[in-house]
Design brief:
Layout (H helix, E strand, L loop, with lengths): L1 H13 L7 H18 L9 H9 L4 H11 L1
Length: 73
């Protein structure tokens, strides 16, 4: 969940990249955090159980490749 929050901050707060001081950047992040918390609604998850099942069956899945390497050794 932290990764999602940081990606939102990256897109909504840091993308203009026009802060001249660290204090200005900190104030912008704190202001955004307050506004985002005031929305009081959860993230809209798009990744479904079906998506997970399909990804787990995918042949290029990194975990399966790791399993093959560990059993071969």
């Amino acid at each position: 969940m932290v990764e999602i929050y940081f990606s939102i901050i990256q897109r909504k707060v840091l993308t203009p990249n026009d802060c001249t001081t660290l204090d200005e950047l900190a104030a912008r992040i704190h202001t955004f955090g307050g506004r985002y918390s005031a929305l009081n609604k959860p993230f809209a998850w798009r990744f479904t159980r079906r998506d997970l099942e399909q990804r787990m069956k995918h042949p290029d899945l990194e975990l399966r490749q790791l399993a093959r390497l560990t059993t071969a050794a």
